[in-house]
Amino acid sequence: xxxxxxAPQGLNQSVKxxxxxxxxxxxxxxxxxxxxxxxxxxxxxxxxTNVMIRALRDMPDVIDIGAAGTAMRFMTAYLSVxxxxxxxxxxxxxxxxxxxxxxxxxxxSLGADISYLGEPGFPxxxxxxxxxxxxxxxxxxxxxSQYISALLMIGPTLKEGLRLRLTGDIISRxxxxxxxxxxxxxxxxxxxxxxxxIQVKPVAYKERAYYIENDWSAASYWYEMMALSEGxxxxxxLEGLMDGSRQxxxxxxxxxxxxxxKSSFGTKQPGTPxxxxxxxxxxxxxRLEYDFVNSPDLAQTFVVCCAVKxxxxxxxxxxxxxxxxxxxxxxxxxxxxxxxxxxxDGDGTELIWSGExxxxxxxxxxxxxxxxxxALSFAPAALRIKGLKINHPQVVSKSxxxxxxxxxxxxxxxxxxx
Length: 418
Description:
Layout: E1 2-6, E2 12-16, H1 21-33, H2 47-58, E3 62-64, H3 69-80, E4 86-90, H4 101-109, E5 113-116, E6 125-128, E7 135-140, H5 145-154, E8 162-167, H6 173-185, E9 190-194, E10 197-200, H7 216-228, E11 235-241, H8 252-257, E12 261-265, E13 274-280, E14 288-291, H9 299-308, E15 313-316, H10 328-339, E16 351-353, H11 372-378, E17 388-391, H12 403-409, E18 413-417
Parallel strand pairs: 2-11, 3-4, 7-8, 14-15
Antiparallel strand pairs: 1-17, 1-18, 4-6, 5-6, 8-10, 9-10, 11-13, 12-13, 15-16
Helix pairs in contact: 1-2, 1-3, 1-6, 2-3, 3-5, 4-5, 5-6, 7-9, 9-11
């Protein structure tokens, strides 16, 4: 399937954003560990969360999480502490090539019984649940924060709790803090005891009602649209966001202010969902340098937006992009060439555009590599690039199932080719 996207002349739209996938998946695991019967409210309806819901509800002998990387990491830890149960955890072909050795090794050091059923270091896994010990565990801080979050969430169930020390540089710290925040709300006692160490005490989770805020990652694509729009009176209203959110991608509003987008929050009290209004403020930096070490999922959005706005950039902190749904650094370099932009990757953990152009090749369309963020971040470029085509656009269901419907409601014309 391929979509050809034609943008409207102007933007004036209210958008009900999806619930946060990151919070939903954490709340589901913690809710299950609490033995809760009251399902969290406003759960995300994306593929990744639906996979988690089915797995935790049905607990089949073989759990296939498809392409859901978060589910693979979180369920690996969760199943390890399910005493007396045995499951096989598997996924898509791409998932079978995404590394999980560091998490498995950490869990084994706590006493987990996990074996590889295929290539060592990669899914599928056979997991026999048991009561794990705790105490001190050290892992590198520059790995996916999902490994760290998976370990933290099972911390309260361990006999001695867990003292987790992160060695070297710590990346994606906001995602770790988000995990701790959700844990706290379910009664866990877990804190940073030092700049590199988190102490989780063996205090059981408590069941409680829990409401999930909407997704700042999803908001980033509407910020991108506003940055690329050219109407002086254009306005987008994003519903259900929270000022002071623990979501790492809430930093999007600060970064986009550098590209000429102003955010105005509604009048609701702090800590409650509200509507954020986006308008153009007219000023834009001539060049953008930014370290995405704490919010790597925003990188694709800013790569596309800056290049299309003709804003040279140098983005750092992208080491984890190589082990996402695809190698996002390689994918961005390839697909941006189709739009006429030549990127370099520095030492392999950066993306740089100095203004170099090449002949666009739009006819074949933007490939999405089974990666939802490729489709989501490239689609807004239709505001500046005529005839933009997106291949396999259905991948957005992984995190934002109603994205194309929301674009149509905002005035975009989307034509489907088989």
